[in-house]
TrEMBL record:
<dbReference type="InterPro" id="IPR013320">
    <property type="entry name" value="ConA-like_dom_sf"/>
</dbReference>
<dbReference type="InterPro" id="IPR003877">
    <property type="entry name" value="SPRY_dom"/>
</dbReference>
<feature type="domain" description="B30.2/SPRY">
    <location>
        <begin position="96"/>
        <end position="304"/>
    </location>
</feature>
<dbReference type="InterPro" id="IPR001870">
    <property type="entry name" value="B30.2/SPRY"/>
</dbReference>
<keyword id="KW-0472">Membrane</keyword>
<dbReference type="InterPro" id="IPR035780">
    <property type="entry name" value="SPRY_Ssh4-like"/>
</dbReference>
<keyword id="KW-1133">Transmembrane helix</keyword>
<keyword id="KW-0812">Transmembrane</keyword>
<dbReference type="GO" id="GO:0016020">
    <property type="term" value="C:membrane"/>
</dbReference>
<dbReference type="Pfam" id="PF00622">
    <property type="entry name" value="SPRY"/>
</dbReference>
<protein>
    <recommendedName>
        <fullName>B30.2/SPRY domain-containing protein</fullName>
    </recommendedName>
</protein>
<dbReference type="InterPro" id="IPR043136">
    <property type="entry name" value="B30.2/SPRY_sf"/>
</dbReference>
Length: 391
């Protein structure tokens, strides 16, 4: 009996140990299935909204849902190239909360201010599909062929460091856009680097978000593809949660630094909050698909259409922002107006107008004369008249 009792106890203990080990294994696998591709020593899950993450399984479900096999060869190739790019050049998820700015970047921005920010030119200059003029004007002039896709990305991310204001904001005006091609559209949004800007619109690859002219809100999703959005009003692939965009519309993107909240405005009115809890360094981006267009981007170098951004100084820089004036600040802009100039003796002297000039002058030959130049000329003309010979 004692022997049987010992065997029963050993069996119970062994079963318990096996169950514990199996639970640990399966629970670990469950955690890894969703985020094993992007976990790392420097990555904190709290820095990225969970809705902003894609794993291989979710992408596979998306491909099945939107019937990858029925896509055109060009769209299939674009999807596969995008996945290969993300695999070979994963986004720098360790660059969060302004870590993308190096010490050299900070010094450049401190010296140049808002002029340090400019959209990057296309690498292939000889066959460029767009040209950046005056740093913030993007002109797509050679992008109207079928399936042609190009995106221009800003050289620096949103300036989230050393700010008094908790929100940073910018606007994009659709300056020119002719809606002749029914399968063409453009996209305005934010991306992380590196990003396949040569063949992908913002919103399609990890990590990116975009407001498309079709009215679709793209959050890091390759489907529906650009052409699937143009299958007519009865298309199952259109999720138009936003108003469509046309020429002369103005789209704004705002980012609340403390909460990681992204929001969108359109023509001076706030449309919606997109997500919260995203602390990645994001770069403004503008792209076009099978069309030409022209965009003007405003980082605060002029007044915003959304009034609140002007009142609360949400632009990239503000002359009244004391934090950016320090040695580690991102910019050190001069003070204009009456601020800090009340005790300036040179400026106070300028109030004594008109200035008092002496009556004595030196003419061209150095002779000292009394009176003004006008008086001398008048006297000289009288003397000439008196000296004229009489007939």
């Amino acid at each position: 009996m004692l022997f049987l009792f010992i065997i029963v106890i050993i069996s119970v203990l062994a079963t318990t140990i096996i169950a514990c080990v199996a639970y640990r294994l399966f629970s670990d696998d469950g955690d890894r299935n969703g985020y094993s591709r992007i976990e790392g020593d420097t990555f904190h899950p709290a820095d990225v909204d969970r809705e902003f993450l894609n794993d291989e399984e979710s992408l596979l479900h998306l491909a099945e849902e939107y019937d990858f096999t029925t896509l055109s060869p060009e769209e299939q190739q674009a999807f596969l190239k995008g996945q290969e790019f993300t695999k070979n050049h994963p986004p720098r998820i360790d660059r969060t909360r302004g870590k993308s700015f190096s010490r050299e970047d900070e010094l450049i921005i401190k010296d140049c201010g808002i002029n340090a920010f400019e959209f990057e030119q296309e690498r292939d200059i000889l066959n460029a599909r767009y040209v950046v003029e005056d740093r913030t004007e993007i002109n797509f002039t050679n992008n109207d062929s079928a399936y042609s896709t190009a995106t221009s990305v800003l050289n620096y991310p949103l300036p989230t460091k050393n700010r008094t204001q908790d929100t940073v904001y910018f606007e994009v005006k659709i300056f020119e856009f002719v809606e002749e091609n029914q399968n063409a559209h453009f996209s305005i949004g934010l991306v992380t680097k590196p990003y396949p800007a040569e063949f992908r619109l913002p919103g399609y690859n990890t990590f990116s978000i975009a407001y498309e002219s079709t009215g679709n809100l793209k959050i890091n999703k390759p489907f529906p593809t650009p052409l699937q959005q143009h299958l007519g009003a009865n298309s199952l692939f259109n999720a138009q949660v936003l108003p469509p965009l046309h020429q002369s519309d103005i789209v704004g993107f705002g980012y609340v630094i403390s909460t990681g909240t992204l929001f969108i405005t359109r023509n001076g009115k706030k449309v919606m909050d997109i997500m919260k809890g995203c602390f990645l360094d994001l770069y403004p981006a503008v792209g076009c698909f099978s069309t030409n267009a022209k965009f003007h981007v405003n980082f605060g170098q002029m007044g915003f259409v959304w009034i609140e951004a002007n009142v609360r100084r949400y632009g990239f820089f503000s002359t009244s922002d004391r934090k950016i004036g320090g040695e580690r600040g991102l910019a050190s802009l001069p003070q204009y107006g009456n601020y800090g100039m009340k005790s300036d003796k040179l400026l106070d002297k300028g109030d004594e107008l008109p200035p008092q000039y002496p009556e004595e002058e030196l003419d061209f030959f150095g002779k000292l004369r009394v009176g003004t130049s006008a008086q001398l000329l008048s006297n000289k003309s009288k003397e000439d008249l008196q000296e004229e010979p009489k007939d």
